[in-house]
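Structure request: Probable 2-phosphosulfolactate phosphatase, Emticicia oligotrophica.
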Amino acid sequence: MASLPKNLIIRNDTVLYCITMKNIDVCLTPDLLHLHKIDNTIVIVADIFRATSCMVTGFAYGVKAIIPVETVEECQELQAKGFIAAAERNAQKVEGFELDNSPFSYMDEKLIGEKIAMTTTNGTYSISKAKTSAVKVLVGAFLNLNAIVEYLKTQPYDVLVLCAGWKGRTNLEDTLFAGAVVDAVQDEFFVAEDSAIMSMRLYQQAKDDMLGYLANSSHIRRLQRLGINKDISYCLQRDLYDVVPVLRGNELVNM
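Returned structure:
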């Protein structure tokens, strides 16, 4: 079905069927988002190592809401108002904040029912970029891949997977996640753009050994230098949680 043109009339004797398929596309870095028209689109933000993996884990373990902000200063302001706050820059915790950017930090029972303010190098920046005009902004990770896919199938909108990347540059792990989404919905969505096709083909090559496929990637090397190997393995696990974080106003909540 993915190879069909978006609008196709099939003649079956005298009956005409008009098929209008939804589009799915991939934006490889938030710095390219301005090239995409997203006013009729659900945007899924993916920052696999590690912001969106943290968010998904937090909701799975009972966090009530996450307030993603672009700057450390905004996060400090929310912290001053009494919010638990998480801040990461260059893959490391910013001094003075309660939480870092490890998903294991979000498994703490003390966070159940809490609202968390969060800023990260790439993930929350991408959410800020997307929320200005998208129909909905969702948060995706391998950890909730199937939950995201099943939700998308129920929606009438086009889809764009927004890879958070690294400081405006493309990264491999977010691209593989985007490809996993495209691969899962290709029979129901029109896959027309090269970024979506490329992402899907990369995922198909990597899916049986993603850790090995990513072994020399830039962000894995960055995290390994910091001794965060367990986070890498954890974030590449598929379908651990049935959660779909969605941005409502300025807060992410579990749908």
